[in-house]
Specification:
Layout lengths: L2 E3 L6 E3 L1 E4 L17 H16 L4 E3 L7 H5 L12 E6 L5 H15 L4 E7 L4 H8 L4 H10 L3 E7 L4 H9 L5 E4 L9 H9 L3 E4 L14 H7 L4 H10 L6 E4 L8 H5 L1 H6 L1 H19 L1 H6 L16 H14 L2 H8 L19 H7 L9 H12 L13
Parallel strand pairs: 3-4, 3-10, 4-5, 5-6, 6-7, 7-8, 8-9, 9-10
Antiparallel strand pairs: 1-2
Helix pairs in contact: 3-5, 6-7, 12-14, 14-15, 14-17
Length: 395
Amino acid sequence: MLYRRFGKTELAMPVFSCGGMRYQQSWQDIPFDQVTAESQANVEACIHRALELGINHIETARGYGCSEVQLGRVLPDLPRDQLIVQTKVGPGEDGDAFERVFDDSMRKLRLDHVDLLAIHGINNRELLELSLKPGGSLERCHRLCEQGRARFVGFSTHGPTDVIVDAIASDGFDYVNLHYYWADQANAAAVAAARARDMGVFIISPSEKGGLLFKPPAKLVELCAPLAPLAFNNAWTLSQPGVHTLSIGAARPSDFDAHVASLAAVEQGAGLVAPVAARLAAELERVLGAEWLAGWQVGLPRWEDTPGGVNLYHTLRLYNLAQALDMVDYGKMRYNLLGSGGHWFAGYKVDKAEWDKLSAVLAASPVAARIPEVLREAHAMLAGEDQKRLSESEG
């Protein structure tokens, strides 16, 4: 395993983290006596396999169903000083309520402290402002650190880059969990802002939300050779300045294998991934055209400011990847979450567009004339059955 200094926390962080949102039995908050022996054995096997590989960062959240309660039957029996344990609690302006949820997490984990405590899901400006209010979530996090119940404070986010940058600028956090990988580089400015403040940077879901890379299309496999697409993405992301660790949301012990196999590529870094990135860029340009690639992101309004609430950025991004690299399955998975993803994946699909008002908000786009046609093509290619967030897929 490779390790990196996790910013000003000074923790030696493995480049892969053991994310706790897939191996648990249920997304419902069930008590331990309802957990099956088979499920518990799987959780224990995942944790022990992670530790065998040197992955000692165990990451979970109060919102991950019974993940914490199952971990609570594993972690207390392990050498505590060899673990980096993280949990996350949702944001709010009521510090007392935040601490009550944190207390529940600690009871379930059966630990006296966590190394990393994150405010979970600062996904829009309202949630940021609530968290930063006097007496709110962030203030309570720091009090918990003073009490020795947490060591460092961070936040996780699925929000827009400007909100993330403003959260970082508050100087209240030691680290951030965010989305950033080859298939979506919009948060480059946020990673740079975190690096400037010597914050730890943890990348959320690089293999699934970063491209559904555990089942890539044949064209992507060919373009990424000699690397597997998953290995390319791991190596590309970890070669970006300021990035420290990638989350592996393992559902079973074998899910770590492909990531560990990519460590040689990670060690070689930018020199190995640059030719692959160049081939991918060339194919995007060949299929989509240089003018479109240079201009499609420029001047796009936020989804809240788009008639019908259409998320233009993600719709156009997913279209580009599907059209040029055959990443259709990935595009469908993400596109059909729009409209039901709440603030975790905000905005709506193209079928909500108010076409007669669209041109007015695209005035700053150099490719405005082409965008309506591409939106229609994207919807025809990607629209399907509405998707739910993983946490809402049960019951």
